[in-house]
Amino acid sequence: MGFLGDDAVATIDLGQPRSIGKITIGFLQQQESWIFLPSMVTYFVSDDRVHWKQVGEVKIPPEQTEHVSARDFSCPVNKSTSRYVKV
Questions:
Q1: Is residue 37 a contact partner of residue 71, using CB atoms and an 8 Å limit?
Q2: Taking the complete model, does pTM exceed 0.90, yes or no?
Q3: How many other CB atoms are there within 10 angstroms of residue 75's CB atom?
Q4: Dist. CA 54–CA 68, nearest whole Å
Q5: Between vectors from CA 5 to CA 35 and to CA 11, what angle results, nearest 5°?
Q6: What is the C-alpha to C-alpha distance for residues 11 and 15, in angstroms, rounded to an integer?
Q7: How many CB atoms lie within 10 A of CB 87?
Q8: I want to staple 24 with a disulfide (CB 3.0 to 4.6 A). Which of 57, 68, 74, 81 is the partner?
Q9: Which run of H or E residues covers position 80?
Q10: Considering only CA atoms, which of 8, 11, 69 is closest in space to residue 36?
Q11: CB–CB of 32/72 below 8 Å?
């Protein structure tokens, strides 16, 4: 999926509270087709989908490349138990 101008937000319902040690999200980059990595990813967890706690943030510097790549960005979570994850 591609987005221009608006931030993409993904919320995942784990079905019940679960122990979370790390959150990872992957992105495709193919600059020749105007597919770029995001400039930043922010990670949140919640028990009720109303009150969110930010657990991390990754800033991604722009890079110029002709190569197609898929990259994962992870955030360690300090022994959190939550039902919802939002990036």
A1: yes
A2: no
A3: 19
A4: 31
A5: 80
A6: 12
A7: 19
A8: 74
A9: strand 69-86
A10: 69
A11: no
With tokens 């919802």, the residue in question is 84
55: nearest Cα among 41, 66, 70: 41
Residue 45 neighbours by CB distance under 10 Å: 21
Over residues 50-77, mean pLDDT: 93
Provide the 8-state DSSP code for 33. Answer: G
Hunting for tokens 């994850």 — which residue is that? 85
- The tokens of 12 are what? 């995942």
- Residue 46 CA to residue 25 CA, distance in Å, equals 17
Phi, psi torsion values for 11, nearest 5 degrees: -120, 130
Do the Cβ atoms of 72 and 25 come closer than 8 Å? Answer: yes
Phi, psi of 60 (to 5 degrees): -115, 110
